Amino acid sequence: MNMIEMEQVSKSYQQYQVLNKITLNLPQGHIMGLLGQNGAGKTTLLKLCLGLLKADRGEIRVMEAPGWDMPPKVKEQVGYVAQKSDTLHWMNVSQLLDYTGAFYQNWDAAKVTALMQRWQLDPKSRVSDLSEGQKQRVAIIQAIGHNPKLLILDEPVASLDPMLRREFIRELIDINLENGTSVLFSTHILSDLERVASDIAILRRGEICFQGSLDELKERYVRLHLSSHSPLPKALQIQGLLHIEHSPNHIRALVENPDRAVVSALEKQLNATAQIEALGLDDIFLELHK
Ligand SMILES: Nc1ncnc2c1ncn2[C@@H]1O[C@H](COP(=O)(O)OP(=O)(O)OP(=O)(O)O)[C@@H](O)[C@H]1O
Questions:
Q1: CATH number for the segment(s) 2-212
Q2: Do the Cβ atoms of 36 and 202 come closer than 8 Å?
């Protein structure tokens, strides 16, 4: 079963189209990292999945229920960490967590207490007095205290220091392994994503330009180098060409699924030597956004 299914989903704010015919599936048990530049529409996409925004067109299903009109029994199986949340900050940590727990039948108070201790949160501290990182830890506990089947996280680690980020990621993997929880999270921290995500989705210019595993991503986008003693042309005839940098004797190009026979033909035609370089996630992300 897919925990989230988006089909041909579009969303605009007034005249400005943010998402254009998005099709995205989150299979059960998967952890999917959502990548995109600032303003790419990640928060918008996550809010559409949660029924906090309504799509202009297309269909969204969450655990087979309509995303815009989720019944309570589906809602109670979803956990959400917003990018920024400023509600109820007059409570102390323990009051806020008890208050949140009251909404859920299967709130795991023992787990919540253990997390508070592990993440060094004083139950008596007022939420408004906490640092951003501490607030984020509280928000994460609020989202996982009821052992949700689906967790949606909008940049959950942005304010955490590297050690807590690592702990949080370990927690995420544990939740995923113990409860089979599926996770969709947006992030800018690519190294974290490499550590935890089984799937990656990349939002670019309002569209999902890639959805699949990290290995598939690395196989799909490679850097093609062509070097020659003779001057090389500024343009290349190869399918899947996304980006090209040219100097008289060297071409550096980002190519999607290059046809090896075409690369060999280019070598002959241009009297050049070709080299195909595998890229890391950072490089692929940067190259895709040039
Ligand atoms: N309520 C709104 N009204 C008008 N425009 C909006 C609204 N919410 C978001 N936008 C615009 O839509 C675009 C996408 O915003 P969104 O917050 O979804 O992006 P994002 O990928 O989450 O960005 P970031 O990484 O900076 O958090 C931005 O250009 C933003 O200014």
A1: 3.40.50.300
A2: yes
**Residue nearest atom 10 in ligand 1 by C-alpha distance:** 13
Per-residue pLDDT of the chain (290 residues; tens, 9 = 90+): 899 999 999 999 998 999 999 999 999 999 999 999 999 999 999 999 999 999 999 999 999 999 999 999 999 999 999 887 767 788 999 999 999 999 999 999 999 999 999 889 999 999 999 988 888 889 989 999 999 999 999 988 877 888 888 888 888 888 888 889 999 999 888 888 888 888 999 999 999 999 999 999 999 999 999 999 989 999 888 999 998 999 989 999 999 999 999 999 999 999 999 999 999 888 898 888 87
Domain spans in the chain, listed from the N-terminal domain onward? 2-212, 219-288
- What is the CATH architecture of 219-288? 2-Layer Sandwich (3.30)
> Smallest Cα–Cα separation from 223: which of 238, 210, 202, 201?
238
Closest CA relative to residue 92, chosen from 130, 139, 41, 142? 130
Which residue's CA lies nearest to atom 7 of ligand 1? 13
| Domain 2-212 matches domain 219-288 at the CATH topology level | no
Q: What is the ipTM of this complex?
A: 0.97
Q: What's the gap in Å between 34 CA and the centre of ligand 1? A: 15
